[in-house]
């Protein structure tokens, strides 16, 4: 799809007062196109309109993913209204790890990437690396292209959306494939999380602690997982 067409369609949808949620799923080059349309939308729509969006990418080929930080003003100054939200350039206020502690315009952004997917390796896994934990927490090269959102890494290969992504993350019940029902348990989603990496970089990957039997599992952190089989996440959940 032409980026201008994508922008126009999303602009119309997000301007519709009767629409309260828009879930956008992007794959491969589609994430480049979606990301560019998103950048235009930030310049033309309000923070409240943009907050309707939820975004999920697979095998993201882009080199950045924006979601400006939000600040809330408690007084009236200039042309602003009391209690109104405004956008703020995140690079100017955020120091430290790639995990953005600020509230961003789009509250729910998740990226899913196979470690041996050649597109992910040249896209999100290259431009959103997990920096050296011993590195200085000041602004550095890792911030030159920012990928806002939680990254789910899977030690797998392949780039096709259905065969290599959805089949790993959201496995269909093979006993009754015609229904398209996702099984409630699969190896990846049931895996325990490396908590240290999660807390520092907002990256979800399988922990390497042998013998662990309890703790946070990947399925506990995936908002997209909560949509399986016709379900819907709790809207009071403020997690990214």
Overview features:
7 strands; 8 helices; alpha/beta; two-stranded antiparallel ribbon; 240 residues; five-stranded parallel beta sheet
Q: What does this molecule look like?
A:
The chain has about 240 residues and is α/β, with parallel strands linked by helices. Helices cover about 25% and strands about 15% of the residues. The chain contains 8 helices and 7 strands; from the N terminus they run H-E-H-H-E-E-E-E-H-H-E-H-H-E-H. The strands form 2 sheets. A 5-stranded parallel sheet has the order 1-2-5-6-7. Strands 3-4 form a two-stranded antiparallel sheet. Helix 1 packs across helix 2. It is globular, with a radius of gyration of 18 Å. The chain starts with a helix and ends in a 19-residue tail after the last helix.
Major sheet? 5 strands, parallel
What is the rounded Rg?
18 Å
| Helix/sheet category | alpha/beta
Count of alpha/pi helices: 8
Beta-strand percent range: 15-25%
Tell me the distance between the termini.
Answer: 28 Å
- Per DSSP E runs of 2 or more residues, the count of β-strands stands at 7
- Give the number of domains: 1
* Form type: globular
Helix content: 25-40%
- Average predicted local confidence, pLDDT: 82
Strand order of the largest sheet: 1-2-5-6-7
Would you identify the regions where 5 or more consecutive residues have pLDDT less than 50?
72-84, 86-97, 138-142
Q: What is the N-to-C order of secondary-structure elements (H for helix, E for strand)?
A: HEHHEEEEHHEHHEH
């Amino acid at each position: 799809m032409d980026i201008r067409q994508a922008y126009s369609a999303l602009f119309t949808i997000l301007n519709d007062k009767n629409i309260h949620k828009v879930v956008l799923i992007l794959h491969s080059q589609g994430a480049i196109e979606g990301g560019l349309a998103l950048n235009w939308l930030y310049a033309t729509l309000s923070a409240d309109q943009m907050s309707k969006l939820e975004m999920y990418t697979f095998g993201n080929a882009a080199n950045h993913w924006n979601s400006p930080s939000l600040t809330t003003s408690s007084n009236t100054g200039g042309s602003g209204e009391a209690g109104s939200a405004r956008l703020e350039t995140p690079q100017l206020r955020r120091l430290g790890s790639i995990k953005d502690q600020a509230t961003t315009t789009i509250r729910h952004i998740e990226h899913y990437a196979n470690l041996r997917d050649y597109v992910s390796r040249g896209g999100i896994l290259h431009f959103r690396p997990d920096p050296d934990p011993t590195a200085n927490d000041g602004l550095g090269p890792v911030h030159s292209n920012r990928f806002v959102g939680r990254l789910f890494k899977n030690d797998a290969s392949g780039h096709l959306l259905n065969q290599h992504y959805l089949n790993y993350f959201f496995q269909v019940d093979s006993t009754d494939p015609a229904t398209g029902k996702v099984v409630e348990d699969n190896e990846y989603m049931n895996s325990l999380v490396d908590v240290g990496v999660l807390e520092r970089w907002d990256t979800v990957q399988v922990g390497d602690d042998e013998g662990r039997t309890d703790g946070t599992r990947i399925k506990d952190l995936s908002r997209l997982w909560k949509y399986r089989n016709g379900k819907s996440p709790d809207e009071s959940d403020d997690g990214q």
